[in-house]
Design brief:
Mean pLDDT: 95
Structural class: alpha/beta
CATH superfamily: Vaccinia Virus protein VP39
Number of domains: 1
CATH topology: Rossmann fold
Largest sheet: 7 strands, mixed
Number of strands: 7
CATH architecture: 3-Layer(aba) Sandwich
Shape: globular
Number of helices: 7
CATH class: Alpha Beta
Helix content: 25-40%
Strand order of the largest sheet: 3-2-1-4-5-7-6
Strand content: 15-25%
């Protein structure tokens, strides 16, 4: 929690309380349904919460905007982002039902009214969104195929509507097909060694009806 306070000093008391509750909630649920590896659960704030919030260092979401989290797993990056941006609507999807059960329970416990979670594949999602976020669920070319028709037409943020993708390592080969892609190194924003190879990959996507 000290890291969260340090990197996001303007959090309200309500937001701080919700971030603090994440530790208890995820440790409790992880004993019933394993959504976070045992070696990672003690590093929840560093490897999951703060990592998720790296997206917010690249782009803040405006009130009334909408974000789709694909392959959310236990709720990352969607749950931490939903706490940070309470006036943005988040739709979290995953193909594994038991993971969505945990997401729904955590969202309910935190009273996150801006979160909707559903057990479904992204191909079946009908709505359109300002941004699509995810944590390395597949390679970027396949991910773009899944989501390219789910972007809203009108852009209102600093970055044009598109994908904000958390991934690590050398991505040049994987991203060579995309001329407009940008890579934001998370070690520019966070000093911990964990972020040395972590990035937010941004790709604008044109609206396709």
């Amino acid at each position: 929690m000290d890291r969260i306070r340090n990197y996001f000093p303007s959090l309200s008391p309500d937001q701080l309380k919700k971030f603090e509750l994440l530790d208890t909630l995820y440790k409790d649920w992880n004993t019933k349904i394993n959504v976070i590896s045992r070696k990672d659960i003690d590093q929840l704030y560093l490897r999951h919460v703060l990592h998720s919030l790296g997206i917010a260092k690249v782009q803040s979401f405006l009130p009334g905007s909408s974000v789709l989290d694909v392959g959310t797993g236990g709720g990352f990056p969607g749950i931490p982002l939903a706490i940070l941006f309470p006036e943005t609507q988040f739709f979290l999807v995953d193909a594994i039902g038991k993971k969505i059960k945990v997401v729904n329970e955590v969202a309910t416990a935190l009273d996150l009214k801006n979160v909707k979670a559903e057990h479904t594949r992204v191909e079946k999602v009908k709505d359109h969104f300002d941004f699509i976020v995810s944590r390395a669920v597949t390679n970027m070319p396949d991910f773009v195929k899944w989501v390219r028709k789910k972007i809203k037409k009108e852009s209102k943020h600093e970055l044009r509507n598109g994908i904000l993708y958390l991934k690590g390592g050398d991505l040049d080969e994987e991203l060579k097909l995309f001329k407009s892609v940008q890579q934001f190194e998370l070690n520019q924003y966070f000093e911990e060694d964990f972020f040395d190879t972590k990035k937010v990959v941004y790709l604008s996507i044109k609206y396709k009806p």
